[in-house]
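Before any further analysis, we paired sequence with structure tokens, yielding the entry below:
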Amino acid sequence: MAIPRLLVVDDDAETRSMLTQFLRQNGFIALPCQDEASIHQQMSAGRVDLILLDVMLGDENGVEICARLRTEQEVPIILVSALSADHQRMAGYEVGADDYIAKPFNPDLLLARVRAVLQRAHRSSSLAYRRRISTLRFAGWTYLGKKDEVISPDGVQVSLSRRETGLLKVFLANPHIPLTREEIATALDVTGEGEAQPEASGRAIDVLVGRLRTKIEANPKEPRLFRTERGVGYVISVDVETGEPE
């Protein structure tokens, strides 16, 4: 249930802001970047699931940046450019771009292409990931993915409802990343359409977080694991470690 974390790389502030806001409204964590240095800064700060990379970045070239990223990263990259001739598209694919979108574009088309690339990346790694990782540990607690069980530091199984378990998995998939209530609601969406369900939005998320705290926090009134991030929403503020299947 990790919320896709995207980088929007464009040297034009208005375009960068517009795309970032559009992607956030459609269920993604979208972070603005203006150059190669800011890309590396964001990647060192946390997980990145896809980079939306403009080809023309002032003095920098997106195709060259893509080539350099490919030497060290497997993160999906979509190139965006007003240059749409066949040889220009091929130059992008040859350096490892996953897709190439020509400007101007329909925002809904961009959204469809982003989701398609993410789905391809997810399918290629999901089976290996499930075989390798089914146990998550945080602050002495253990989540057993195969059994959908939560074990306390004392070794006692704690009973969580389906929604509480879903919320816990959202937090564990996004450690140290502040999440808005809308992002949490979207991640809990069981339809897979990327839209928050009415019963999972707003005040309902606050209530759900409160219930999870009462079962896992030592002191729910002064939470240390699932903290309120003022002006944003909530964040799991401890490291999450993966383990071998049990």
In short: Residues 124-132, 190-199 have pLDDT under 50 and may be disordered. The first helix runs from residue 13 to 25. The radius of gyration is 20 Å.
